[in-house]
Amino acid sequence: MEAKVTAPREAELILDMCTAHWKQQALRAAVKLGVMDAPGMADSAVPINQLAAHTSSNEDHLYRLLRYLAQFGIYEELPGQAFKLTSMGQHLRADHPSGLCYAAASFGAAGQFIPWMHLDKAVKEGKTAFEFFQPNLPGGAFQYMSLPENKEEEHTFNKLMTMFTKTMDVGIVNLHDFSGYRVVADIGGGYGRLLMDIMDAHPGVQEGIVFEMPSVVDMVPEAPERFKGKIKWVKGDFFTSIAVKVDCYVMKSILHDWSDERCVTILTNLRASMAPGSVLVNFDRLMPCFGTPGFHPAKGMDINMMTMVGGKERTTQQWHDLLGKAGFAITSISQGPSMAAILAVPSPPN
């Protein structure tokens, strides 16, 4: 039976999906070359020969790269083979507060990009795609980034996570009232951006602790002056123990990285460290109920977690089930524009 001819617009959309990596890698190349940060690019048009000289690039190849990106609104191509950053392109400058240059650099890097080429095998075998990319690294993507040869990729990823907290997930610190806690610990808190935002929004929080992997702590930038002496970083592995005792523990986009079994290990270790009256505030996405049609950002992040680290985005019921397995009870869920604040406390003993 002859297949029905696909409508032209549908075919166009499919081809656009098939070539999406062209855009991703072109953006990454422009960011890595430093084109957006070349002298004059912030507010004027710059001839291609000057851009090539600044980036030590082949002039013809660089022109063709920027001409391609101009189609998507990153640059404006002007007469005389000159290019000017658009308002959208400004977001990719290293000094732009959005920090999207780190998204371009990180998502297109080898450790984030190549595993997706193994997604078909991962779906067949129920594994992460990363296992086929690096079969000798049981710690997966995070172990890969911690290797000495991948330090730049790890640093870029941590800057990306800081950017998400600063710009994409702005306002989540107001989903829960932290004013009643004197000390807050961010478990897996990277460079401390979320903790700083909590302390700025809730002056009652006097001290902060970031519990992180040694490889991350070793790269932490100097904290702003107002936080010196108020925030400290503690090295550790939350799969082994969480030797931190505070009033309130925070996690953001940590549990979605891991399978239910691995999450139970993390949460069990956390519960063992909690003093009476301590609470957990878990910031994560809520997946819509099964069978909910249409676009939802959690669906894309879920497939990324499945590909990279074996985690998942969870529905409200799945969060109740997961935390319950580790001896926690959810007392409230506050939904924000991008994430929810899930407040949980240790369940009373039976």
TrEMBL record:
<dbReference type="InterPro" id="IPR016461">
    <property type="entry name" value="COMT-like"/>
</dbReference>
<keyword id="KW-0949">S-adenosyl-L-methionine</keyword>
<feature type="domain" description="O-methyltransferase dimerisation">
    <location>
        <begin position="16"/>
        <end position="90"/>
    </location>
</feature>
<keyword id="KW-0489">Methyltransferase</keyword>
<feature type="domain" description="O-methyltransferase C-terminal">
    <location>
        <begin position="116"/>
        <end position="329"/>
    </location>
</feature>
<dbReference type="Pfam" id="PF08100">
    <property type="entry name" value="Dimerisation"/>
</dbReference>
<dbReference type="InterPro" id="IPR036388">
    <property type="entry name" value="WH-like_DNA-bd_sf"/>
</dbReference>
<dbReference type="GO" id="GO:0046983">
    <property type="term" value="F:protein dimerization activity"/>
</dbReference>
<dbReference type="GO" id="GO:0008171">
    <property type="term" value="F:O-methyltransferase activity"/>
</dbReference>
<dbReference type="GO" id="GO:0032259">
    <property type="term" value="P:methylation"/>
</dbReference>
<dbReference type="InterPro" id="IPR029063">
    <property type="entry name" value="SAM-dependent_MTases_sf"/>
</dbReference>
<dbReference type="Pfam" id="PF00891">
    <property type="entry name" value="Methyltransf_2"/>
</dbReference>
<keyword id="KW-0808">Transferase</keyword>
<feature type="active site" description="Proton acceptor">
    <location>
        <position position="256"/>
    </location>
</feature>
<protein>
    <submittedName>
        <fullName>Uncharacterized protein</fullName>
    </submittedName>
</protein>
<dbReference type="InterPro" id="IPR036390">
    <property type="entry name" value="WH_DNA-bd_sf"/>
</dbReference>
<dbReference type="InterPro" id="IPR001077">
    <property type="entry name" value="COMT_C"/>
</dbReference>
<dbReference type="InterPro" id="IPR012967">
    <property type="entry name" value="COMT_dimerisation"/>
</dbReference>
